[in-house]
Amino acid sequence: xxxxxxxxxxxxxxxxxxxxxxxxxxxxxxxxxxxxxxxxxxxxxxxxxxxxxxxxxxxxxxxxxxxxxxxxxxxxxxxxxxxxxxxxxxxxxxxxxxxxxxxxxxxxxxxxxxxxxxxxxxxxxxxxxxxxxxxxxxxxxxxxxxxxxxxxxxxxxxxxxxxxxxxxxxxxxxxxxxxxxxxxxxxxxxxxxxxxxxxxxxxxxxxxxxxxxxxxxxxxxxxxxxxxxxxxxxxxxxxxxxxxxxxxxxxxxxxxxxxxxxxxxxxxxxxxxxxxxxxxxxxxxxxxxxxxxxxxxxxxxxxxxxxxxxxxxxxxxxxxxxxxxxxxxxxxxxxxxxxxxxxxxxxxxxxxxxxxxxxxxxxxxxxxxxxxxxxxxxxxxxxxxxxxxxxxxxxxxxxxxxxxxxxxxxxxxxxxxxxxxxxxxxxxxxxxxxxxxxxxxxxxxxxxxxxxxxxxxxxxxxxxxxxxxxxxxxxxxxxxxxxxxxxxxxxxxxxxxxxxxxxxxxxxxxxxxxxxxxxxxxxxxxxxxxxxxxxxxxxxxxxxxxxxxxxxxxxxxxxxxxxxxxxxxxxxxxxxxxxxxxxxxxxxxxxxxxxxxxxxxxxxxxxxxxxxxxxxxxxxxxxxxxxxxxxxxxxxxxxxxxxxxxxxxxxxxxxxxxxxxxxxxxxxxxxxxxxxxxxxxxxxxxxxxxxxxxxxxxxxxxxxxxxxxxxxxxxxxxxxxxxxxxxxxxxxxxxx
Length: 736
Fold this sequence. Notes:
Layout: E1 2-5, E2 8-12, E3 19-23, E4 27-33, E5 36-44, H1 48-61, E6 67-74, E7 80-84, H2 94-104, E8 109-117, E9 124-129, H3 137-152, E10 157-162, H4 172-177, E11 183-187, H5 210-230, E12 233-240, E13 244-248, E14 262-265, H6 268-276, E15 280-283, H7 289-295, E16 300-304, H8 305-310, E17 319-322, E18 329-335, H9 336-340, H10 344-378, E19 382-385, H11 388-407, H12 411-426, H13 433-447, H14 452-468, H15 473-485, E20 489-494, H16 501-504, H17 510-517, E21 521-525, H18 532-544, E22 549-551, H19 570-590, E23 597-598, H20 602-610, H21 612-625, E24 630-634, H22 639-648, E25 652-658, H23 682-695, E26 697-699, E27 705-707, E28 712-714, H24 722-734
Parallel strand pairs: 9-10, 9-11, 14-15, 14-16, 17-19, 22-23, 23-24, 24-25, 25-28
Antiparallel strand pairs: 1-2, 2-3, 4-5, 5-8, 6-7, 6-8, 11-18, 12-18, 13-16, 13-17, 20-21, 20-22, 26-27
């Protein structure tokens, strides 16, 4: 008797009442029957030694298997045969498998069946080899990944992380391929076996920021996946190292200073680069670098701020030049046999954990870079930016190196760069701050409570400016239509620093951008008969410019633009918020971006601050959607209450103060319909911000002062002088 499933035959044993699975041809099958799981694997083999290898491998992958039964035929004349019942009644396990091989007259063929008991089964245990020590942020990320997998699988899968590469001494790619270890992380550019593809992330000056590094990774990710698959493994996630710089004894001001350098490099690309710059590249294992610096074998190192921190380079070197050489990738992979040993649900949960950790670890890399630079400076390492002259000289070398690299590269590698550079070109718009400022004012005139006449007047001016600067008429009109008819607000975007030399002159770091401009946002409306294409185009441009994106959910108050309070039951409120976050998130993810925070809009924001029940429902909705999203709320004297609720739902909070709003005596904002609610005078705005920064206090309408801790400063974009204001606030922050 047998029942058929896709590519699988299930023979029912008359004695045990259990099905045996045999793959039709070569392949893999997975089947659950009567509280047992059956995993079938069939493949061509050339020798008995190969049979033993695969049986041993499956025993290692499935240490808690109830039985592993098999049969094989080797030799063109089929003269070498074998089978095993592995504890099953004699002739009831291996014999049916052999009968199947005989039926189809297979030669040099092996079929193995793994039987797992599901009821009361022990957790599946896997080891993850981590290349670096326990204090390294990549290793910490692997630990966090292991915890998430255990959590998401309800303890069914347990991963043990082994720091310091204690499980793998040779090539990690080969170790995972052979099943020596289930999982490992690996420094992709330094791993042999990947060809030119593995060198992509380590090429000099291809990516000049974390955003560009992430785009490069997303562009090349599908190629990495296919390559890892050829090595019998699956890519789980990859994270950039902080940008590589140059550690030296003497300052590096121009390419002439490379003469006499004996530089430890980490791959062929970096070695060629140093040699072309006039230095002498030396290949050394990381474990030998410190002693080599001590003895003078090398006197400089190309590596990240994080590696310099871990290596305590301040004991042997004096300078770190931030040339931002490259953002090389560290990847985590899993052996495909181990992967296939997981159920579909377990695979889904592991993939979910991997995606979450990848997102978290890219931010962790940025944080690690800042922390490492701080520690290096604290230990008297002189940190300097590369001069414009040095950048130009090094970039010329990088271009020659890239041209040489691509000479004999295959189509897959060339396509990566073709697509990446095309996306980079599309990321830039002509024009200056003016068209962005005017467009933003148009939108904010619509959303900040202005009348229809005001909106129409500003819109008329804006249409002319947008058309003059080459924007498509459909996009220009669409943006004005969106400005006039926004209703169900689903997202807000912080305004980017890089659209012109004028904005670039602000010199805002990503952190200052969040602190100062994070909530000077463009509001995106999505109504049933609205223009999702406009929103998508705006999202795409925001991602191209490295703009942070967050959701800005509101009450479904179309006529009042979300400024009127509404009574909504808990279930509806949560569903409404999740829906609005999800709508924006879908558009952002479609362009391989992510949203990073949630700030309720209008009356929903006010209700959240004065009604604990509303705050709980918002916190619960954010947690249900994605616990990594930060929830923004007004900095106030009752932070402990909100913090307790946030802790319960495992989400993080960001507290904001307002640069251009007046505070009531209770510490909350004066209603917008009250006289003086919005501060338009530049000196008053700057005075209020300076007081907030220096003394961590807010001043109310009557002069009372409250001590407040805050994370962000909000300034509204409908102020015509918003950009000069932001620049001045940035200066204040720089002196805080």
